[in-house]
Amino acid sequence: MKNRIALLIIATLILVKSVDAQYFNPLYSGHFNAGVLYGSNKTRVQIETIHGIKFDRWFAGIGAAIDDYYQQSIPAFIDVRGDIFKRKKTPFVYAEAGANILNKGTETEYSKTEYKSGLFCEGGLGYKIDLANKTTLNFACGFSYKDHVENLYYKVYYKPAPYYSPIPEGEWSRRNHNKYTLQRIVMKIGIQF
Question: What domains are defined for the chain?
Answer without folding.
Answer: 2-106+113-145+181-192 (2.40.160.20)
